[in-house]
Amino acid sequence: MNKRYFTIGMAGHIDHGKTTLTKALTNIDTDRLKEEKERQISIELGFAPLYEDEEIEISVIDVPGHERFIRQMIAGVAGIDLVVLVVAADEGIMPQTREHLEILKFLGVQSGIVAITKIDRVEEEFIDLVKEDIFTELQNTVFEEAPFVLVDSVSHRGIEDLRTMIIERLKGLEMRDIRGAFRLPIDQVFTVKGQGTVVRGTVYEGSVEEGQVLKVLPKGLNVRARQIQVHHHQRERAFAGQRAAINLSGVAKEELERGDVLVSSEHFIVTKTIDVAIHMVSDLDYIVKQRMPIKCHIGTAEVMGQIVFFDRNEIETDQSEILCQLRLDEEIVTKRGDRFIIRRPSPQETIGGGWVIEPRGEKYKFGYRTIEQLEQKKEGTPKERITAALVEEKSLTLPELIKTTSLDEDTIVNEINSDEFVLFNKKEYTLLSVIETIQEELIDRLGLYHSHHPMKHGMNKAELFHSLEKTFHKSLLEYVLKQAVESQQLKKKEQFIALQSFMPSVPKNWQKRTENLLGKLRKDGYNVNPLSHYFQGEGIPEHLTNDLKRFLEEQELVYSLDGQYYWHGEVFKTAVETLRSKTAAEFTLPEVKEILGVSRKLMIPFLEKLDQMQITKREENKRIWQ
Hints:
Residues 3-174 form the Tr-type G domain. It is found in: Cytoplasm. The chain is of the alpha+beta class. The protein folds into 5 domains: 4-171, P-loop containing nucleotide triphosphate hydrolases (Rossmann fold, 3-Layer(aba) Sandwich), CATH 3.40.50.300; 183-263, Translation factors (Elongation Factor Tu (Ef-tu), domain 3), CATH 2.40.30.10; 269-377, Translation factors (Elongation Factor Tu (Ef-tu), domain 3, Beta Barrel), CATH 2.40.30.10; 380-504, Arc Repressor Mutant, subunit A, CATH 1.10.10; 508-625, Winged helix-like DNA-binding domain superfamily/Winged helix DNA-binding domain (Arc Repressor Mutant, subunit A). Strands 7, 8, 9, 11, 12, 13, 15 and 16 form an 8-stranded antiparallel beta sheet that branches. Strands 2-3-1-4-5-6 form a 6-stranded mixed beta sheet, with helices on both faces. A 6-stranded antiparallel β-barrel has the order 17-22-20-19-23-24, surrounded by 4 helices.
């Protein structure tokens, strides 16, 4: 898609002519409310289309200038690409203008134009003095190098010059990202008769299309985009940078409010604690203290909370960047890089602003180690952030990575296209270093297990995974185990895992006694004593008997008849061969007694063992060879 979409904002002091200028540029009166008409001030955000051709489409937001409507002003400016700072020639820079400049700086607005309005009200020679005064006031602000345009909205003097300058500057800017997930912070909610609930806002990123299923966060409401309008014209899609009104089905007007966010994905983080980098205003009226109540404006949301410092307890004058945390009273929707403003609730004033380093902040200890940790988060490249997330979580799906790192899908896919990252189960990512760590841990655990249990085939997989599952997802452990078996580092028999080189064996210090035990058992033939008798006779301690019995059975050195009596492996196999050779397809108990000479006490368990091993099958009083 070649066409690009931008939204510009009109900002400045009340009565400096923002709305009149907007009307002169667009031929639309953005003061729609009756109260706005009566009081001749803007209360809500006003919107109008400014310009459109094959390459570019531009919308205008007229933000309220009165200090009582600063929330609306912040909500409007938060989504714009260029600001026209409106300064009246007959008044110059005013206190409200300075506050707007601070807000624009904190919101990261980089491109601006200064429109000096009402020039027909002052003498020609006075204009140069006004320009000089404004130029001085704008030093060290985002507007210090902004071009000046002289306009009069009533006579339309300079209006075309301003329009042309806006278009040319925007054509030189990069538009917002339309590739990622859709996000629209809602700044207006209303109903249209016969249509239902409509929300309006500036599309921050991504795109939305008619009929698309969306979600309203942080409320978690599922909705559908029934219709989309851009400046009262129905569209099939809306893109990042556009002002859009979206008719939603599945939700009532009363369920929504300004500050909610309309999204197309679960990637976006809902949080109440954010790690941030902030700057304070240049001239604080009051000291900012540790855990002081603040009002945070982010996107279109306005949320109370407190500011938490980790390297100080108060700020009186400090123009350096401060790494700290905002702990909010209500949930917000945000991602790394989002801009925000913080204001003092009482007395009301803007005290600072900045950007989100980490949307999911945790509780940290006071001290410089925390500051160093936040510094690392702040400076991290996309690859470092992805790596850090996988080091922390060990494995994540792509949606989880997007949510955790606050990076878009394309950035993540590009960054993880290297040998350092591993995709497994077709949907989960981990680090090669994490896989190597797990392999080493499995090998170490099995080595230790074999040394303690040399007679066992291996370690039960559930036991091997048990403590590891506290750190690693089971799906990751299964993947690493499969890879280790395929590469012949480990071997697997049923549920037992062992090192490839491991062979079960009797511990050296018990080998001679075990050989003696087996010799006596073989010598006693069919008429054996309980196996415990042979263990006791060789002085084999009770704590070894279970493992040794299991080992002897697994190696087919002995066969258990009933858990108490055992025959030597050779004796058992000889008994089966002898019986098979001297009987027909069917045989009875008397035949067995006559052929083997075994007492009934052992003959019945022996035959039941044959049934259990599916060598024979019992039918009434006879056995049938299988």
